[in-house]
């Protein structure tokens, strides 16, 4: 009898060891690949999953929320250990988050936010403070121009937290300067192509931009498209018209080093490590997880752009 008992004990121990060593499976629903920042974000999550031997199921939604919701439902059906969502817009998430909760699968929100009142529908959100990014961009511009500036704004995706909050932070600062005003504002959907197209239209409507002091873009991709449009309108971006943005992608550092752009607030794309940390903590029983984990970034200008570009382009 003793032999059977020690055998089953040994098998149970073996099973636990194998189980705990088994890789976890995480489903990740990503917005798309609309910007250099987004692709760095995706690559960093994939590299981190590989480093930790986590099985990552990656889904690119091509900017469509219905594709994100389909992907999350598929992750639930596959019984993944955890789900990460980088939501394209804030609204429309309650039903599928309820389904994940019913399936007892923890959900981590990355970057932009979801507009749900019931905070138990997700484990935590890991993101930058977009309002602060808008404030920093505006404070730089007000300092640079003495608060005397007519501005064209390229907004991000309508309904996306990054667009809503960057606009909020920027407007909060310029409201203190009577001679600072956004004269035109339109969405460039966070892409370079659309940013150029919208900037061309705004310049045409504003006497080719001759009286415009600055372009404020919610991300570098749109700013880079805007810079093309400013050049084609016969103006010198970075000089005739200042350019300030957010993200800190290598191409934008190159534009600043070339004198075509002036400042950007860097956005950390490395959200994989903190996300997997919090998932592993939760799966190991930790229930003391903050509802918001913020990342930070610095404001960069032309002064250090060339050396910063070398560092980033080399990666
Ligand atoms: C903001 C993020 C934005 C980036 C853009 O955190 O959602 O989406 O600023 C990207 O580059 O499109």
Automatic annotation (TrEMBL):
Locations listed in the record: Cell envelope
Main location: other
Any matching Pfam family: Peripla_BP_4
Protein's GO biological process: transmembrane transport
Ranges where the Periplasmic binding protein domain occurs: 26-285
GO molecular function: carbohydrate binding
Keywords attached to this entry: Signal, Sugar transport, Transport
Annotated signal peptide: 1-21
UniProt cross-references to InterPro entries, sorted A to Z: Peripla_BP_I, SBP_2_dom
Record bears the keyword Signal: yes
GO CC terms: cell envelope
Family: Belongs to the bacterial solute-binding protein 2 family.
This protein's name: Simple sugar transport system substrate-binding protein
Organism: Microbulbifer rhizosphaerae
């Amino acid at each position: 009898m003793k032999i059977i008992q020690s055998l089953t004990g040994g098998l149970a121990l073996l099973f636990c060891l194998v189980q705990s060593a088994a890789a976890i499976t995480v489903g990740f629903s990503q917005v798309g690949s609309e910007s250099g920042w987004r692709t760095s974000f995706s690559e960093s999550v994939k590299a981190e999953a590989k480093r930790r031997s986590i099985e990552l199921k990656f889904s690119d939604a091509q900017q469509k929320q219905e594709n994100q919701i389909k992907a999350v439902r598929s992750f639930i059906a596959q019984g993944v250990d955890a789900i990460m969502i980088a939501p394209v817009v804030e609204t429309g998430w309650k039903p599928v988050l309820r389904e994940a909760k019913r399936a007892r699968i923890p959900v981590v929100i990355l970057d932009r936010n979801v507009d749900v009142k019931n905070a138990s529908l997700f484990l935590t959100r890991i993101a930058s403070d977009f309002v602060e990014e808008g404030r920093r961009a505006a404070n730089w511009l007000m300092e640079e121009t003495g608060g005397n500036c007519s501005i064209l704004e390229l907004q991000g995706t309508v309904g996306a937290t990054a667009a809503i909050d960057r606009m909020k932070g920027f407007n909060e600062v310029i409201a203190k300067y009577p001679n600072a005003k956004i004269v035109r504002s339109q969405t460039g959907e966070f892409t370079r192509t659309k940013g150029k197209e919208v900037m061309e239209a705004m310049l045409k409507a504003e006497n080719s931009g001759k009286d415009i002091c600055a372009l404020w873009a919610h991300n570098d991709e749109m700013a880079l498209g805007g810079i093309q449009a400013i050049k084609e309108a016969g103006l010198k971006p970075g000089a005739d018209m200042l350019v300030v943005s957010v993200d800190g992608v290598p191409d934008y550092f190159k534009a600043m080093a070339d004198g075509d752009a002036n400042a950007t607030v860097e956005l950390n794309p490395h959200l994989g490590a903190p996300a997997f940390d919090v998932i592993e903590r939760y799966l190991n029983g930790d229930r003391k997880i903050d509802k918001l984990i913020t990342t930070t970034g610095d404001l960069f200008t032309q002064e250090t752009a060339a050396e910063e570009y070398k560092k980033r382009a080399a990666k």
